[in-house]
Design goal:
Length: about 220
Amino acid sequence: MKINRFENNEKLYKTAYRLAVFTVGYNIIEGLISVYFGLADDTLSLFGFGLDSFIETISALGITYMISRIRKNPDTERSKFEITALKVTGWCFYGLAFLLLISGTINFFNGNIPKTTLPGVIITSISIVSMILLIMAKRNVGRKLDSAPIMADANCNLVCVYMSAVVLISSALFEIFKWGYFDLIGTAGIIYFSVKEGLESFEKAKNNGHCDDCK
């Protein structure tokens, strides 16, 4: 009976690890595509969304390492590598927020508007669906393993959904009304979530990887 339970847990941990690796790969691809179209179409919100995906990759690498660690010994404390990854992620989010604030201010005073935000509508629509499915899969594994870290990771992925929704709505509104400030509103949303995720990254690093407010 114990052997069967061990084998079942081993399969679940393998699934959790694969989900973490998928998150890394997905964020890299999403980031490359978003940054490309953000630059090509002068869409600041999509550009910021793409940079956020690269930052999320750093965090996802830490999560991948975490899955490997708890798979071998669920009771071990978060490693120095994971804590460093969280701190680097936090600073990157703050840097992104500052960069977008400066760029958004310049665009505001210069009256710069995107050529089109259609790629943003498509990319973020795909992102929302993908992230929701990923969150559901992670929660399913986390519940079966009774793993608080995996459940916390799934909950923190919700921020990606919120961020995608902000860019999607602002991009769709621009496509309909062609009012350039919708892109700046979407950029403001990216800034807000970047600061929020930066704070949470440092909070998790301070509390050895736990973040009660990570929702």
